[in-house]
Design brief:
The structure holds two protein chains of two kinds. By secondary structure, chain A is of the alpha+beta class. Chain A contains five helices and six strands; from the N terminus they run H-H-E-E-H-E-H-E-E-H-E. By secondary structure, chain B is mostly helical. The radius of gyration of chain B is 19 Å and the shape is globular. Classes of the chains: A alpha+beta, B mainly alpha.
Chain lengths: 158, 264
């Protein structure tokens, strides 16, 4: 498994791996079953840890998982969805319909930090705002292109 | 009611909870949530002490919520010893079933049951010493009850289980064919750690023979002990998990005059 996308409030990867009890509560309380639990085949380090595959099921930032985490591997202080920084969306200009001249604003319309994390430029093309993007992956899940043209790069940002 | 009947009720309740918790959670009820790694019943949180200790050692940071969640399990370990293992742990229930099956089928295992106490302390020490090199709480990989509960949740959520159930399969196969009850008695670091909080006041099976309660050395108690322990010898270091089978066996022969009983 390449670098996994962790649930909201996750500590930086090394600390997260050290702190996570592998209890699976975050996945159990996730109302959308967005959070899944890695298995032994993902590696000994990963086994039991939570991850999100946004193309299949993104994070809707309900913040139930951070509140349920017993060890603080998901920081309970991260309560507001606006301050989540689980990853960063990246747009592939070569495949993005809007950047290729077709009218499409699927990602822009669905972004939970509406008109802030994703904005439209003067030519109605979506642009990610690094300072506001939470990394929830809703944009990636709704992108109509076969291979999503907007993809979340996992990795906690401060 | 025999001790075993009481224990079976508790074990059955534990199995019901393992299935009920993910089913409830899936249906939006998350008053109770978690696994044998960490459990939350409303505001009452309980975490596995060994895995918690490892995360604390790894990060040199003691999360306040995590520390509070250790109060109940550690208090129980002080008061009841390894009773969690004997009464609640699903791996113990499974291993007991395997043991029953082996006897029902009249099978003979390859290796006779050992009495050595060293391996489990070595396993526990190795798990703790290797932790900083691994960078993860290693005991989580060896928590059979944790794996059983998390994989049950996975089965209910995703309809599949991971290959880590292979560890459970390996334990079952080993105990079926090779050596009796080896995991709980000689390997499991979680259980060994829980047993280390015993003091002179912790609940133990006590052997007290007097004029009224005479032991006639029938050794039914030792026959009944799945770990092959001798209950007439009291030792704090024993892997005894207070299942009480020996007391039941003694009472069958000695009735109320049994010299074996629980004592704090």
């Amino acid at each position: 498994m390449k670098k996994p996308l962790r649930p909201p409030g996750a500590l930086p990867e090394r600390d997260f791996l050290a702190r996570c009890l592998r209890c699976g509560k975050c996945a159990q309380v996730c109302p959308f079953q967005s959070i899944r639990i890695a298995g032994l085949l993902d590696g000994l380090e990963q086994m039991g840890t939570p991850f999100i595959k946004p193309r299949e099921k993104p994070c809707w930032l309900c913040m139930k998982c951070t509140a349920a985490c017993p060890s603080g591997a998901l920081d309970r202080k991260v309560k507001a969805k606006e301050i989540v920084r689980m990853g960063l969306a990246k747009i592939d200009n070569k495949t993005c319909l809007a950047w290729q001249g077709t009218l499409c604003r699927s990602c822009y319309d669905e972004c939970p930090i509406f008109n802030e994390a994703l904005v439209m430029d003067a030519e109605l093309r979506p642009v990610v705002n690094d300072k506001k993007c939470t990394g929830c992956g809703i944009c990636e899940s709704v992108c109509p292109v076969d291979q999503a043209a907007i993809v979340v790069q996992p990795g906690v940002r401060s | 009611m025999t001790i075993r009947t009481a224990r079976r009720i508790v074990q059955a309740a534990s199995l019901v909870f393992i299935i009920a918790i993910p089913v409830l959670n899936r249906n939006g009820i998350d008053f109770i949530t978690g696994s044998f790694y960490s459990l939350a019943v409303g505001p009452v949180w309980i975490s596995d002490p060994l895995i918690a200790l490892q995360t604390i050692l790894l990060t040199l940071h003691a999360d306040a919520v995590l520390l509070v969640s250790l109060v109940i399990p550690l208090a129980l370990a002080f008061v009841l010893g390894r009773a969690f293992c004997g009464w609640v742990c699903p791996q113990n229930a499974l291993s007991e079933f395997v043991d029953w099956a082996v006897r029902a089928l009249r099978l003979r295992r390859f290796i006779p049951q050992g009495r050595t106490r060293l391996p489990r302390y070595l396993v526990l020490a190795a798990v703790i010493i290797l932790t900083p090199f691994a960078g993860i709480p290693l005991a989580s990989l060896l928590s059979a009850p944790g794996i059983i509960s998390v994989q049950t949740a996975k089965l209910i959520y995703e309809g599949t289980v991971g290959v880590e159930v292979g560890l459970i399969g390996l334990i079952v196969l080993t105990e079926f064919l090779v050596v009796r009850r080896v995991w709980c008695a000689h390997v499991c670091p979680i259980g060994t750690f829980l047993g280390m909080f015993r003091t002179g006041r912790t609940l133990t099976v006590t052997f007290a023979s007097d004029k009224e309660h005479v032991c006639d050395r029938c050794m039914d108690c030792m026959q009944a002990c799945q770990f092959g322990l001798d209950p007439t010898k009291n030792k704090l270091s024993s892997p005894c998990h207070n299942c009480g089978d020996c007391i039941d066996a003694c009472r069958r022969t000695r009735h109320v005059k049994s010299p074996l009983h629980y004592r704090f």
